[in-house]
Specification:
- The structure is a single chain.
- Helix content is 32%, strand content 12%.
- Among the domains are: 155-205 and 268-427, P-loop containing nucleotide triphosphate hydrolases (Rossmann fold, 3-Layer(aba) Sandwich), CATH 3.40.50; 436-500 and 518-557 and 596-697, 3-Layer(aba) Sandwich (Rossmann fold).
- By secondary structure, it is of the alpha/beta class.
- It is built from 22 helices and 16 strands.
- Residues 1-15, 66-93, 234-247 have a biased composition (Polar residues).
- One of its GO terms (biological process) is fructose 2,6-bisphosphate metabolic process.
- It holds the Pfam family 6PF2K.
- Keywords: ATP-binding, Kinase, Nucleotide-binding, Transferase.
């Protein structure tokens, strides 16, 4: 018998008046949260049941509210109630009591419990959810978003990415790469790292800023003290609670590899992550939920478009709690995308573990003892680990499974422009150790005349630069090969004294190694624009040794009516345009046929960036001033306001070597007297006023 039509219970807007005032929603959206949403039987998905437990086939009356402040009310689904009352997951109430209801597995859920995170189809007579499509700064605009950014009220266009996976699976590195890419595309993105806050809450010294740096988008909210994270909980009392089972007569184990020299800190060895350690489990859960609350505040109140929750989230209970909290605070519109990283390749996993041993939890400790403790921690997580899969599929949740850092990608029901951009980026993702060189073309005849744009050929000095560039690349390519082989010979598990920095975790197979297991030599690509001065700069490269290719995407910004003019001529002929450009170079678009802005260049370079991320070979990009600025802005995570002001003079070549927690960055300057490139020690990027520019990616020391 077909089920009868049922109305969902009334859902009040969960956000406080303060939140509503800072991020106003249209009356249409508010009403969607304040009124019942009937679900016709003909449109009811098979895997979706009403949120109320009392599903009796008849319509339900919305619960009557007695509160004088209905906007502050919240209503959990039955799953949310069961999650929040699960032992170890429950939120302590004002009386200090916890619920005891256990969480049912997917195949044992009682009738009426929601199995889906997908918003219900709205009936014809219900308030519709706003349509959300792509928003691209510089390329799209609307009445609510004249600059192309996602409007504050378009909650459905925003995204929460929730990381999932065991320790040492590369989650933090993936989040940093994704955040850097989305920020570069002008979508405001921040990472909220639970591990960082957990270390602060437990009273441990966090060396993250020096050794395992987060992307600048990592959010560290509030004063970095345990008391502020635990709402007044005394660090000393917390320490005694967490370590109550450690050793009689002491508040922490003195032989812990992470509690050494931590004054008043909590032992964060493997026992800290044992579910049997109730006090530690409560601390970890509290920190995780508070970090999520900060993420949601960033999305809803502070203009953020994407928030990334960087944590293990390895249990089904934790992931349900995350979804329930998002729905409680933001409603059904805000997208939630789970991103899981798995490592099946043993060599890749060992490389990840070597990197973890140099992180904040094990800094300065004996590598053998640290590795033993870390493996115990992983074993504890593995006992309770539930990978993404059947439950999420039945629930209609968005998720991505990333296996061996891009060897295999599984996606499920990804919806929305930002989620699609994330998938697109991850499909072209690898950790290969390689070099990325960026330079402007050699000096052109128009450079000598002070003209912008055009399609002039190289000057005599430009010809000399081009010849030296090809010779210099030959030398540097050989140096990299020697260093590559040396690092391979000096990589052991566990690390030994004298070992070099760990190699990049990279999936290895017969296509990347020789018969003796050594890495194969990298190919070398040279990419130019389709303008004469760029093509001529690459003329001395041997086509048998280098893959030389012209790309229109690397062309200089088109100046429209100002092409071929000097800046003085532009100032006199187009004074209004000159002032507009000076006031906002990033968003200014030159008038006339083909005129472009920096945002246009960013969008046409997106394909180049994704290809560089996909490939495992070396690459030299011979571009132009604006192109070099935009490329460096991506790889070094420059602030938005600094992109158009970056000083990239002729005769300078930059090299970047991606690292698991940052990038190795060097610069060389062409010396016309010696006709060679001089290394620039302690090089810092400058703006046009020769002031230092902030680099938001950890720059590793040259090795």
């Amino acid at each position: 018998m077909a089920p009868s039509v049922q109305s969902s219970p009334q859902v009040t807007n969960p956000r406080s008046p303060k939140m509503m005032s800072r991020c106003p929603r249209s009356p249409r959206i508010v009403s969607a949260f304040l009124s019942p949403v009937p679900l016709p039987a003909s449109n009811a998905p098979q895997n979706m049941l009403p949120l109320d437990n009392a599903f009796n086939g008849g319509p339900q009356q919305p619960p009557q509210s007695t509160s004088p402040h209905p906007l502050k009310q919240t209503q959990h689904s039955s799953i949310a109630k069961s999650v929040m009352s699960t032992p170890g997951m429950a939120r302590t109430n004002s009386a200090g009591k916890e619920g005891i209801q256990l969480l049912s597995p997917p195949n044992q859920l009682s009738a009426g419990q929601a199995l889906t995170d997908t918003p219900a189809t709205t009936a014809p007579n219900s308030p519709r959810i706003r349509a959300t499509t792509l928003d691209i700064p510089g390329l799209t605009k609307s009445r609510v978003s004249p600059d192309g950014r996602i409007a504050c009220r378009d909650i459905g266009a925003k995204l929460v990415i929730v990381m999932v996976g065991l320790p040492a699976r590369g989650k933090s590195y993936i989040t940093q790469k994704v955040a850097r890419y989305l920020n570069w595309l002008q979508h405001d993105t921040k990472i909220f790292n639970v591990g960082h806050r957990r270390r602060i809450a437990a009273g441990a010294h966090d060396n993250l800023a020096n050794d395992e740096p987060p992307h600048p988008s990592v959010k560290h909210a509030g004063p970095a003290t345990p008391a502020t994270l635990l709402h007044g909980t005394s660090p000393k009392s917390l320490s005694s609670l967490v370590n109550s089972n450690s050793r009689p007569g002491g508040h922490r184990r003195t032989d812990s590899v992470t509690s050494i020299d931590i004054d008043g800190g909590v032992d964060q060895s493997a026992t800290f992550f044992d579910p049997a350690n109730k006090a530690a489990a409560e601390l970890r859960e509290k920190v995780a939920m508070e970090t999520l609350d900060e993420l949601l505040d960033y999305i809803l109140n502070r203009g953020g478009s994407v928030g990334i929750l960087d944590a293990t989230n390895s249990t089904l209970e934790r992931r349900k709690a995350v979804v329930d909290r998002v729905r409680e605070v933001a409603g059904k519109e805000l997208g939630v995308l789970f991103l899981e990283s798995e490592c099946h390749d043993q060599q890749l996993l060992e490389a990840n573990m070597r990197l973890k041993l140099s992180g904040p939890d094990y800094k300065g400790q004996d590598p053998v003892k640290a590795l033993e403790d870390f493996k115990k921690r992983v074993e504890i997580y593995e006992k309770n680990y539930v990978p993404l899969g059947e439950y999420e599929e039945k629930a209609g949740m968005q998720f991505i499974k990333m296996i061996d850092v891009g060897r295999k990608i599984v996606t499920h029901q990804t919806k929305g422009f930002l989620a699609a951009q994330t998938v697109y980026f991850l499909l072209n993702f690898n950790l290969a150790h390689r070099q990325i060189w960026i330079t402007r073309h050699g000096e052109s005849l128009d450079n000598v005349a002070g003209k912008i744009g055009g399609n002039a050929s190289l000057s005599e000095n430009g010809e000399k630069y081009a010849k030296t560039l090809a010779q210099f690349m030959d030398v540097e390519r050989k140096k990299f090969r020697e260093k590559q082989l040396h690092k391979h010979e000096c990589s052991h598990m566990p690390p030994r004294p004298g070992d070099t920095t760990p190699p990049n975790p990279e999936y290895s197979n017969c296509c990347t190694q020789d018969e003796e297991g050594r890495p194969l030599e990298k190919n070398f690509c040279v990419w130019t624009s389709m303008l004469a001065r760029s093509i001529e700069t690459a003329q001395f490269f041997d086509d048998e040794e280098y893959d030389v290719k012209e790309m229109r995407m690397l062309n200089e910004l088109n100046a429209g009516v100002a092409e071929g003019l000097t800046y003085d001529e532009i100032k006199h002929q187009y004074p209004k345009e000159y002032d507009l450009r000076r006031d906002d170079k990033l968003h200014y678009r030159y008038p006339g046929a083909g005129g472009e802005s920096y945002l246009d260049v960013i969008n046409r370079l997106r394909a180049v960036i994704v290809e560089v991320e996909r490939m495992t070979d070396h690459v030299l990009l011979i571009g132009h001033r604006v192109v070099a600025r935009v490329l460096l802005a991506y790889f070094l995570g420059l602030e938005r306001e600094d992109v158009a002001k970056l000083d990239v003079p002729l005769g300078t070549i930059y090299v970047l070597e991606p690292k698991p927690y940052g990038v190795e960055f060097r610069a060389y300057k062409y010396n016309s007297e010696t006709e060679w490139f001089d290394f620039q020690p302690d090089f810092k990027l400058k703006n046009e006023e020769q002031k230092d520019i902030k680099v938001n990616v950890k720059v590793a020391k040259s090795t």
